[in-house]
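[Discussion] Sanity-checking designs against the backbone

I'm trying to build intuition for which residues belong where. Below is a C-alpha cell string of 198 positions. I'd appreciate it if someone posts a full sequence so I can compare it with mine line by line.
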C-alpha cells in the first residue's frame, strides 16, 4: 500500500491469499481502513494462457486495516463476473452500486448484466439473450446532480449467430432496455469505453 503523496520508502505490504485481479471496482478511505472492491480470480495463466478460465472470478470486498496490519476479504456475490463499473463520480469515494458482466464456466462473457446493490446486499440482472456476449458498460448520469443510479448504461453486445454487434442503452436503475443501435460489423467483446459529456 502506497499512501497518497508517499514515496517508495512509505510502501507497506499486506499478505493475502494468492489470487489475480484484472479490475478493481473502486477503493476509498473509511477512517483508519481502506476499502477495495475487486473482481478476484482464484488462479490465472497457470493452465491456460488465453482466457481467464481457471476458477470463477468473483466480486470481493477487501478491507485493509492500516492500524492492525491485516486485510479481511469478503465475497459479495457467488456468481462469476468481470468488467465492473460504477458511477465514476463515486471514484475514490463510498459507492452503493456496481455493474458487471456475468461470465460462463469457460471464462467467457455472457449476455447478462448484473447490478450489485452493496448497501442492500442484493442484485438485479438483465439478460440480453442466448448467444450474446456483453462487453463492459459505462454509466452516464441523467444530470450532473443525479443520483448514483439515475441515468443510463451504454455497452456493446455481440450476437455470435449473426456475427454483428449492437450498441445497447439500459436504464441504470432497473436495467430495462431504453434503446439499441444495430451495427453493421462485430466490435470485439471486452473493449473498455468511457463517456465524455460535451
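Best answer:
Here's mine. Compare freely.
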Amino acid at each position: 500500500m502506497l499512501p497518497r503523496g508517499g514515496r517508495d520508502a512509505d510502501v507497506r505490504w499486506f499478505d493475502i491469499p494468492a489470487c489475480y485481479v484484472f479490475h478493481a471496482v473502486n477503493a476509498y478511505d473509511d477512517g483508519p481502513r481502506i476499502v477495495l472492491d475487486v473482481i478476484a480470480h482464484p488462479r490465472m495463466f497457470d493452465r491456460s494462457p488465453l482466457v481467464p478460465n481457471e476458477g470463477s472470478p468473483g466480486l470481493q470486498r477487501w478491507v485493509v486495516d492500516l492500524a492492525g496490519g491485516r486485510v479481511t476479504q469478503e465475497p459479495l456475490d457467488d456468481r462469476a463476473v468481470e468488467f465492473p463499473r460504477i458511477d465514476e463520480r463515486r471514484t475514490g469515494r463510498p459507492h452503493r452500486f456496481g455493474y458487471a458482466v456475468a461470465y460462463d464456466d469457460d471464462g467467457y462473457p455472457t449476455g447478462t448484466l448484473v447490478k450489485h446493490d452493496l448497501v442492500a446486499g442484493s442484485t438485479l440482472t438483465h439478460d440480453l439473450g442466448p448467444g450474446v456476449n456483453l462487453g463492459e458498460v459505462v454509466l452516464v448520469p441523467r444530470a450532473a446532480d443525479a443520483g448514483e443510479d439515475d441515468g443510463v448504461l451504454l455497452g456493446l453486445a455481440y450476437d455470435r449467430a449473426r456475427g454483428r454487434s449492437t450498441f445497447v442503452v439500459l436504464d441504470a436503475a432497473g436495467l430495462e432496455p431504453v434503446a439499441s443501435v444495430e451495427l453493421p460489423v462485430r466490435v470485439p467483446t471486452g473493449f473498455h469505453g468511457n463517456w465524455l459529456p460535451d
